[in-house]
Amino acid sequence: MTAQPSPSRRPGASALAAIGHPVPPLDDADASPHAFPDGGTWRTEIPSVEGPESLAAVLKEAGRLDVPVHRVSQGSGIWMLTDSEITEMVGACAEHKMELCLFTGPRGTWDIGGSTRTPSGGAGLRARGHDAVAGSVEDALRAAELGVRCLLVADEGVLWTLHRMRTRGLLPADTTLKVSALIGPVNPAAYAVYEQLGGDSLNVPSDLTPHHLTEIRKVSRAPMDMYVEAPDDLGGYVRMYEIAELIRRGAPLYLKFGLSGAAGIYPYGAHLRDHALATARERVRRGRLALDLLARHGADVGMSPLGARLPGKLRRFPTECS
User: Fold this and answer.
1) pLDDT, tens digit, for every residue of 153-179?
2) Which residues of 216-227 are buried (b: 16+ CB within 10 A; e: fewer)?
3) What percent of the chain has pLDDT over 70?
4) Range among 15-29, 195-209, 226-240 with highest mean pLDDT value
5) 151 near 173, Cβ under 8 Å?
6) Are 164 and 196 in contact (CB under 8 A)?
7) Whether residue 109 has pLDDT greater than 80
8) By the 8 A CB rule, do 24 and 313 touch?
9) Which of 311, 317, 298 lies closest to 7 in space, CA to CA?
10) What sign does the CA torsion over 231, 235, 238, 241 have?
11) Are 267 and 80 in contact (CB under 8 A)?
């Protein structure tokens, strides 16, 4: 006999009601009307998986803790991996029905420009100058040739360039373009623009409120990525108890399990090996904690099947005018 899912409940609601503490009512009008093409409302992602060894640690820990993982992403960049390392990661992810997303090209903090280190942040972590755009294109072509079908982008111009390449057959048609948290849109107008520039999966900053997600969902159905625990350089926010509401408002949503209180690992190398492997395992454990919390609240329904990766039909700017 199949166990029936627990009825959905909000954290602490019955106990608060018992002592007469008011619980704000949910408004059905706030809920997102959108879903992934497979009907799911949420998927999972483990970020900062920097190479085959980190990926192996994630896969082993995910198996041990029974954590379903739809996507793993890397932050150091395609150029930091050898062909054999990329090929190994592609094969392992395919075997486990998992999407592999690798970061394209040079970014603001890693080139000779100093403006990103000023108090204002300058131009942010975008591709600075033609050569950085060209490097991102080179990365994308190399990764695609090796079987990678998800590319992580931190620049609007690179996003539009790769999207045009995809529409003209220079990249495989099933390539997905993921907008990085480094440039994530913070309002519905910007979100809609990123979708039309070619974004298939858009990372929003983790300090957006549930109401902000509802505003975005009124203008776009493009899948959203959100760190439910953010690394310190992205704010260090921990929003575990809000996950059910974030899904309700932001679907279709990728739940990203980052790690606060941990030193950065970009760009990754063997000198950071022990730290990278330990944090990779802990990110998976954070995922288990989040899924357990959802289950306790009866809010763990709606997960996409493993292997699901495409975003569905999205709106785009016309490319023939470019």
Assistant:
1) 999 999 999 999 999 999 999 999 999
2) bbeebbbbbbbb
3) 93
4) 195-209
5) no
6) no
7) no
8) no
9) 298
10) negative
11) yes
C-alpha distance from residue 228 to each of 19, 87, 96, 205, 231 (Å): 30, 30, 23, 10, 10
Report whether 101 contacts 152 (CB < 8 A). Answer: yes
User: CA torsion 35→290→294→64, rounded to 10°?
Assistant: 100
Please answer whether residues 238 and 260 qualify as being in contact, where contact means their C-beta atoms are separated by less than 8 angstroms. Answer: yes
CA distances from 236 to 69, 106, 206, 232, 263 (A): 22, 24, 9, 4, 11
Tokens of 140: 């994308």
What is the enclosing helix (H) or strand (E) of 43? strand 42-46
pLDDT tens column, 67-76 = 999 999 999 9
Tokens of 167: 């529409």
Q: How many CB atoms lie within 10 A of CB 256?
A: 26
